[in-house]
Amino acid sequence: MTTTPPASPPPPPSTAPVLSTPDDHAFQASFVDAPSVLSHTHLSDDDFRAMYEIPRTISEILAGDYQRIALQFPDERLKDSARVYSMLHQAVNITTSEEGKEERKIYILADTSYSACCVDEIAAEHASADVLVHYGRSCLSPTMRLPVIYVFTSNPLDILLAVEGFRKTYTELDAKILLVADVTYASHTAPLYSALKELGYTNLFTTEIIHRPASLLPNRTLPSDCDSEDKIRDWSLFHISSPLPSLLLILSSRVQQIHYLDPSTHIVHSTLSSALLRRRYALLSHAKSAGIIGILINTLNITHYLPMISHLKSQIRAAGRKSYLVVVGKVNVEKVANFSEIEVWVGIGCWEQGVVGGVEGRDWYRPVITPWELGIALGEREWTGGWVADFAEVLRIDTERMEGEESKREEEGVQEEEEEEDSDEDAPPEYDLRTGRYISTAWPLGRTTKSSSTQATKAEKTSSALTTTSNRQKELVAAGGVISPAAMFLRDKRTWQGLGSDLEAPEDGGALVEEGRSGVARGYVVGKEGERH
Fold first, then answer.
1. With contact defined as beta carbons under 8 Å apart, do 185 and 157 qualify?
2. Which whole-number Å values give the CA distances from 12 to 342, 355, 362, in the listed order?
3. Where are the domains of the chain?
């Protein structure tokens, strides 16, 4: 048996990686290892129905009178899809065959367009589905088009070993601890809570699943007195299964301490949330000096993704940068590396998949940050250690900030003194703090300053040389907030003003509009006289 030596570390990303394949690649057999696929053929029908919550799914389908049902499975549970389909199809069509109605159609979505945790409404709409049944772990992001039935398919957990690991971690019986679990282990929080209460723990709170990613503890309930970040900071968190990086970053500034239980080894680990935040903050240096920013869309299913795209585009343009919009399915290193001109990416995905490429993103050709982090990099908000992933919350915070700035300007007064400010040519040069190099593309669209917009407004009011009396030409041409005389000259002096400009009436009175040619090319008819040309 031979072993493969470890690969040497990759060189620094000075150029984009080569993504082409050799000419003889088509004649070589290459296979990609498939992900480990679970199979529960050993389970009895009763245990299988309990795992996939077949009775509850049937009752909700019948209650909603859904005729076309889509079943979405993650890749690791596709082996169970046929058995689930058989049980559901037989149960939901028993009464329809007796009453002579058309039987309900059930479809299996074998491949998801985006992350498996997100509801694939687009694939379900291809089958004209009335409802979608989502199996496995889910981010519980709000959907827009279809009703969804969530089945988390509970994974097994040894409660006795979990209690033992908990006791070794928390020795004080009066410690404030939140019991949280991944959705696939959520069924074990209640038994674990009961077992720990019997041991004398007095300040435990077992969370329940809710559909609210923007809550202080995303998609989970909290004690009634924990209605602010200051109050929840007194609690520690015990998580069953390894939490995702997004959850760790969100909770790093909200709870006192985080420990998680590995279900496979039943060993309790502690997380260094402050270190995760420092690594993410280091990525912001790329965005601070980036002139071209890519908006990477890897979801079309969750709400607020369209307002977030519009917000990012205006945000990037206001900062004097360029933006490109790229829609992909499942994000990987190779797809993103195809765009070598992009200096940094902003990911648009569900709140759980917002941290693309892990916390550090060392394997990626260009770093991928979140919309919340982009606002910090562009100087629109200060770094406080807090981290927000939900789009609705980010939009709300930014809207309140812009409204506050606008009201503050109105209170101080709109009038400004006539002061000459440095132009773009006299502005100080931009340097990358990481490399110390001069950045020539930091402001590809030019700096948009208050003085430039003020100058444009004053020029529009006072200058008579650049204005015309025509209704069509009252709008002044501006570049970067400054009026461009060259552009105005081209607009005034060019002979052809655009399609339909010859129908405009002069200002000194009306003019008759003559009827033009009509007919076919071999013989046009001019006017009403019928003269052919």
1. yes
2. 17, 22, 10
3. 45-151, 159-271, 287-410, 450-496
- CB-side neighbour CA atoms (13 Å) of 362: 6
Amino acid at 180: V
Q: Quick: pLDDT tens for 201-222.
A: 999 999 999 988 888 899 999 9
Fold of 287-410: Rossmann fold (3.40.50)
Q: What is the DSSP letter of 188?
A: G
Bridge partners, 292 (sequence order): 322
H or E segment at 278?
helix 273-288
Q: Specify the CATH architecture of the domain 45-151.
A: 3-Layer(aba) Sandwich (3.40)
The residues near 113 (Cβ < 8 Å, ≥ 6 apart) are 120, 122, 123, 300, 329, 330
Task: Centre a 10 Å sphere on the Cβ of residue 160 and count the other Cβ atoms it contains.
Answer: 9
For residue 287 the two structure tokens come to 């965005």
Shared fold status for 45-151 and 287-410: yes
Strands 257-261 and 236-240: parallel
> Tokens 């912001």, residue?
284
Band of pLDDT at residue 144, cut at 50, 70 and 90 = confident
For residues 519 and 525, is the Cβ–Cβ distance under 8 A? yes
Question: What percent of the chain lies above the pLDDT cut of 70?
Answer: 69
Superfamily of domain 159-271: Diphthamide synthesis DPH1/DPH2 domain 2 (3.40.50.11850)
pLDDT at position 15 is 54
| Element (DSSP H or E) covering residue 387 | none
Q: Which of 353, 304, 345 is nearest to 323 (CA)?
A: 345
> What is the C-alpha separation between 385 and 369, in angstroms, rounded?
15
- 40-82 tens-digit pLDDT: 778 888 999 999 999 999 999 999 999 999 999 988 888 899 9
List of long-range contacts for 313-321, beta carbons under 8 Å, 24+ apart: 315/374, 315/375, 315/378, 315/380, 315/398, 316/374, 316/378, 317/445, 318/448, 319/378, 319/379, 320/443, 320/444, 320/445, 320/446, 320/447, 320/448, 321/290, 321/291, 321/292, 321/293, 321/443, 321/444, 321/445
Residue 169 has pLDDT above 90, yes or no: yes
User: Bigger pLDDT: 451 or 348?
Assistant: 348
Q: What is the pTM of this model?
A: 0.70
> Which strand ranges, in their side-by-side order, compose the sheet holding 236-240?
204-206, 177-181, 236-240, 257-261, 268-270
More confident residue, 129 or 430: 129
For residue 5, pLDDT over 70 is answered with no
Q: Could you tell me the pLDDT band of residue 313, with boundaries at 50, 70 and 90?
A: very high
CA distance linking residue 221 with residue 180, whole number of Å: 10
Beta-strand runs (E) in 343-412: 344-348, 368-369
Q: How far is CA 268 from the centre of its chain?
A: 31
